[in-house]
């Protein structure tokens, strides 16, 4: 440990705050700033008079684990010898060797008398978190709306979802390579076992993505999203077959989803069987991707969500494009010429295609970043509201006719997804509590 005489950032005066509580323990504070006389040792004598010869001192400057070298809650190291003091200039992991806020020495009186703490924060941190949460959801919703609008505009002119879906995965792959090349995102270490573990999730992601794109090309965007809100139904059914158990509240929550989707389907003006099946198969694909990912990627938890999604996009592109060429490749040239004529200006068509690809990746990237910053419950509620915002936005942009019963069915289905998110979160909290007790 460093002594106070070795610290060059302390002041010639000190003050103590008695009867203060720090992190729920009894401490008295001595905060110091400025420069000390290294030869006199008077400062140490003054400290010993204030805090007593048996003071126990904590080192707040040694911090661990936080990626930027500091905790939001400081850690402390107890020193039993009152003559030793904390090294305020020593930090572990922080790149510049100092705190953004001055560290405090916290001596505890040997008598162990009960003392109160200085309250942390003044509400500024909570306001910043609220603002950050609003920005995360704002970008996520905005990017999703832009993607759905331009994706549908392109499909209206160029009804070849296999090629468009392949292009969107291609844009996401290029985007990730740029992030890795420019070191804006740490590139994960790639091994043969990691690639093999990704093959299954990437295959199901491919199925989910292309099926949704086919559905978008056949029916209104709002109808596809209503049907896609039934994804929890498939999640519960498939997970139950694989051995998971769910409480009655979860099973009851999927009933309004089934009822609402059924009502929306039978009253949909733009109903198309291929569009319905595309949305349903998309749900199956994404549910199996999530289930398979949990099983096959358990040993690769060091790879963050964004990098994982990037590699899934790359492998999905390799899956999808050869099949796209086989399914509709012979029609692309003629379809391209018709699309250019319908658009009037080729640059307009190119811009729409590019925007659909860029914002497809961005909204998925934002969803992973949102999940890193907020709780699963907040994320699931936000995802439910995202569908509402997208449905309303696309109905307004494309002016799709909506019957009253169709609107009612959509509302019931989305409300069911909200109930499902509440029920599953309660189940997980209860499970975590039981595991902690054990």
From TrEMBL:
- What SUPFAM superfamilies does the annotation carry? Multidrug resistance efflux transporter EmrE (SSF103481)
The record's subcellular location field reads: Membrane
Q: Where is the Sugar phosphate transporter domain?
A: 131-421
InterPro entries in UniProt: EmrE-like, Sugar_P_trans_dom, TPT_transporter
List the Pfam families.
TPT
> For this UniProt entry, which segments traverse the membrane?
133-150, 162-182, 194-217, 273-292, 308-327, 339-362, 405-423
- This protein's GO CC annotations: membrane
Its placement in the membrane is given as: Multi-pass membrane protein
Q: What is its main location?
A: membrane
* Alphabetical keyword list: Membrane, Transmembrane, Transmembrane helix
Q: What is this protein called?
A: Sugar phosphate transporter domain-containing protein
């Amino acid at each position: 440990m460093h002594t106070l005489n070795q610290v060059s950032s302390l002041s010639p005066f000190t003050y103590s705050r008695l009867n203060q509580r720090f992190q729920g323990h009894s401490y008295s504070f001595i905060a110091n700033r400025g420069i000390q006389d290294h030869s006199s040792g008077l400062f140490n004598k003054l400290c010993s008079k204030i805090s007593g010869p048996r003071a126990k001192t904590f080192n707040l400057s040694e911090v661990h684990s936080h990626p930027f070298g500091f905790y939001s809650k400081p850690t402390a190291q107890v020193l039993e010898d009152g003559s030793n003091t904390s090294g305020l200039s020593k930090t572990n992991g922080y790149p510049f060797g100092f705190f953004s806020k001055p560290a405090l020495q916290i001596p505890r009186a040997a008598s162990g008398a009960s003392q109160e703490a200085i309250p942390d924060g003044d509400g500024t941190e909570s306001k910043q978190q609220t603002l950050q949460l609003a920005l995360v959801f704002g970008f996520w919703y905005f990017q999703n709306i832009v993607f759905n609008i331009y994706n549908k505009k392109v499909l209206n002119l160029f009804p070849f979802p296999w090629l468009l879906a392949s292009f969107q995965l291609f844009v996401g792959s290029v985007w990730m390579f740029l992030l890795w090349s420019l070191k804006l995102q740490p590139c994960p270490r790639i091994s043969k076992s990691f690639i093999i573990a990704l093959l299954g999730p990437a295959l199901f992601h491919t199925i989910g993505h292309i099926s949704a794109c086919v559905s978008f090309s056949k029916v209104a965007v709002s109808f596809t999203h209503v049907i896609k809100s039934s994804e929890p139904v498939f999640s519960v059914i498939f997970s139950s077959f694989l051995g998971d158990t769910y409480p009655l509240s979860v099973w009851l929550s999927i009933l309004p989803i089934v009822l609402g989707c059924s009502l929306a389907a039978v009253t949909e003006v733009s109903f198309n069987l291929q569009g319905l099946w595309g949305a349903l198969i998309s749900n199956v694909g994404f549910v199996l991707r999530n289930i398979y990912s949990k099983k096959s990627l358990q040993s690769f938890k060091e790879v963050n969500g964004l990098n994982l999604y990037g590699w899934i996009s790359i492998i999905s592109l390799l899956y999808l494009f050869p099949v796209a060429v086989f399914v509709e490749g012979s029609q692309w040239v003629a379809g391209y010429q018709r699309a250019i004529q319908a658009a009037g200006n080729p640059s307009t068509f190119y811009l729409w295609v590019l925007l659909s690809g860029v914002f497809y990746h961005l909204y998925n990237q934002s969803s992973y970043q949102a999940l890193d910053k907020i709780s699963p419950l907040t994320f699931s509620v936000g995802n439910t509201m995202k569908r509402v915002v997208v449905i309303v936005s696309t109905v307004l942009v494309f002016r799709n006719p909506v019957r009253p019963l169709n609107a009612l069915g959509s509302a019931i289905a989305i409300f069911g997804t909200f109930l499902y998110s509440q029920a599953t979160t309660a189940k997980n909290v209860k499970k975590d509590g039981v595991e902690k007790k054990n």
